């Protein structure tokens, strides 16, 4: 028996129906990321609880580790039990936990509530990526994942936008943002429960190059997860992108704090700078995703975006220190988000297609393993970055993130896929 909110499709949706269901999956990604966002209020929360950056790093590391375990198992279970069966409860309960977060008045309470929230949320984010893949044939895969990145990116923008304009209205009380996040998330969860659907397991097992109505009702085995571990190029994807994610998560967790500590911006101004970078990133991923799909090329876009990110990050590191204008910081920070958007979406499509070629039934498992490894990296980031920052400033830690970008660039050698468009094959000559 399936829960009441599960709508399982036995015919692959096409046209506006597919686009609508893809949009609901993207909305679910937005909710999953938005309801656990803490970066916008982190400086205020640390002051209120008299908590050092090192202590916060330790709390966040343990809670993210819990979320990483949830992400790995959630992806595997979504291949067996279905996406929506797990997704809807994780989104709704995590949203409600924001009201608990608003009652926190000690470091210990923050720790336990964050562990609870990230354990529930961990499975949800990887499941939304699986749903996006399920509703995106390969000819539109990169653009579909571009909209999926509007989940984490859009969540950061939404949280920063709300905080930038509502914090002054509530006397800079961080509790106001937790309550706002809870209310907004629950409203969006209501829309998702009302409209969400998923393809059947038999439909998910099919590899579609282009949109077409396909019927599949037979039961299908979920596949063996160990099959994924036998392919080095998949590990190159997972480990290489984990190096790339060091920079993304540094900005996602500490972006406002970096702008405040290294360049002297206040909380509201820092949130507005972050919001601008996120807007550029959101536009870049859609444009690049469309170009990547049109050319059916992934690796060249990823390589170019990563090289530009490395150059911009090196310049940003050189800027760290007093006396830098706010306008200069804003431009470079925004460019970093723009260049990361160029690299990320084609990589996601490339990874999804490489995993699909190995075993199409295990898309959720592949994304779940990736999500788990990334969260282990986040744990290391949260534990290691505070002492590095205390010893050498934010420039020292950003140099570590720069090294992660280089690792990702080197790992691309192992990825499957073309570097140039395929040459058109001339039709054979007909002789009399």
Automatic annotation (TrEMBL):
Q: Which UniProt keywords apply?
A: Membrane, Transmembrane, Transmembrane helix
**Pfam families xrefs:** MFS_1
Topology with respect to the bilayer: Multi-pass membrane protein
Is Membrane set as a keyword in this record?
Answer: yes
Bilayer-crossing regions:
55-77, 84-104, 110-132, 144-167, 173-194, 234-255, 267-289, 301-320, 326-347, 367-388, 394-415
What is the designated name of this protein? MFS transporter
Localization (cell): Cell membrane
Query: PANTHER family, per this entry?
Result: C-METHYLTRANSFERASE, MAJOR FACILITATOR SUPERFAMILY TRANSPORTER
Major facilitator superfamily (MFS) profile domain sequence ranges: 20-422
Query: Superkingdom of the source?
Result: Bacteria
Question: What is the organism field in this record?
Answer: Nonomuraea marmarensis
UniProt-listed PROSITE patterns:
MFS
